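Lab notebook, bench 4. Still working through the backlog of constructs that have no structural model yet. Next entry is a single chain of 163 residues. Request: give me the structure tokens for it.
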Amino acid sequence: MKKLLVFIGKPGVGKTTLINKVFPDQKIIDVQPYVWSYKVNGRVPEEKTLNAYQDMYRHLESLNDALVILELGTNHAEFNIKELKKLSQQFEVRVYLCTASVETCRARIKIRARGDDMEAMERRLQRDFPDEHIKQLKSAGLEYITLDMESPLSEIQQQLVNV
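Model written out:
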């Protein structure tokens, strides 16, 4: 069966860095470009983010790759978990909840200096995570692993063995 590895976490937690180090040649499906396609005057209206997620899931359903890596933020927990549950009919879904302190995430965002909308970024950093995701994952019967992204990379990689 095809595998779908899903990395969920706040901005700056290290999802992209981890994925690029562990899966250097693997294509990543990231929700961000889908969300950015709805930008108006440099910002994405919150009500449009769900449209972006829907676009992304339609794309995922069409993929036939043996291994697909998906990178998600913390928005729309209930919707995302329902969609992942649907995808579990065509993929072996493995969910990784990537956690770090808000201070660590904020510092990492400043280092990368991409010109992010810091007001919107701060709202995303203040979201309750991973509690709502864990509740939704348990309700959907999907297994997950929580990754402490402040641990050394070698320790985090050990939790990804047998992927």
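Notes after review: The radius of gyration is 15 Å. The first helix runs from residue 15 to 22. Flag for follow-up if needed.
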